[in-house]
Amino acid sequence: VFPQGRLRRRLRPSPREQAAFLQVSSGGLVSRPFRARPRIRDPRVPESHTTVVKAAISSYRKAIDEGLLLKLPFTTIFEYLQLLQLVSTAMNCLEHHGMFYCAAAVSDFYVPWESMAKHKIQSAGGPLNMQLNQVPKMLFILRNHWAPSAFCVSFKLETDPDILIQKAEAALRKYGMNVVVANELANYKDVVVMVTSTGKTTVSRRSKEDDLEEQLIGLLVKMHSDHAKQSNPDQET
Q: Start and end of every DNA/pantothenate metabolism flavoprotein C-terminal domain (predicted)?
């Protein structure tokens, strides 16, 4: 018969369960008893994962305590662009020793502040038409005005592999970046292409246990060091 006490579930009942409930509620018996879905238990984290997470949290807290990491939270595109300007102009004094790793996926469109509704939009007014403006491209301003001597790295993500490198090379020329990291959405965790004015370098993850970012950052650090040495040959980086 229909299992008692199991009608209230977080998951939607299957068609078979619904038919059984209707049959029981009408005074009949379920012709084919079914097995209720097992309850989802709390997931257990493997010990190896726990060790890795603890080490990452310890390194994170150590960086904050030593003043090596400054968190600047933001929510809106307005806050992000304002913080980008403040940070960039503050780092301008570092000249070639400064490095910008612009990996944020900034929205392509936004609603201008003056166009935002001041009060709750009423549904009685009928269909809603919204016009979005393009978010201004700030990489060019960062490179040419806010911190012109810094080492700048930006990212280009595409879903079409046929245009990925072309778009990355165009961004390199248009915004004056030192490096554009090109990645495809389908395999962005496994392979990236570092596009520079002198060529392209493919970085692939060695194994499932390795992080692609570790290899990428190592190469970028070396490129930044070379950039600083070439700009200031008599100074140490």
A: 85-209
Listed residue (220, 205, 211, 196) closest to 103, CA to CA: 220
Helix (H, G, I), strand (E, B) or coil at 18: helix
How far apart CA 49 and CA 29 sit, in angstroms, is: 48
Query: Could you say which DSSP state residue 122 is in?
Result: P
Domain at 74-111+132-231, CATH homologous superfamily: CoaB-like (3.40.50.10300)
**By the 8 A CB rule, do 201 and 193 touch?**
yes
Q: CA nearest 193: which of 172, 174, 173, 207? A: 172
- Domain boundaries for CATH 3.40.50.10300 within the chain: 74-111+132-231
Each residue's pLDDT tens digit, 170-211? 999 999 999 999 999 989 889 999 999 999 999 998 888 788
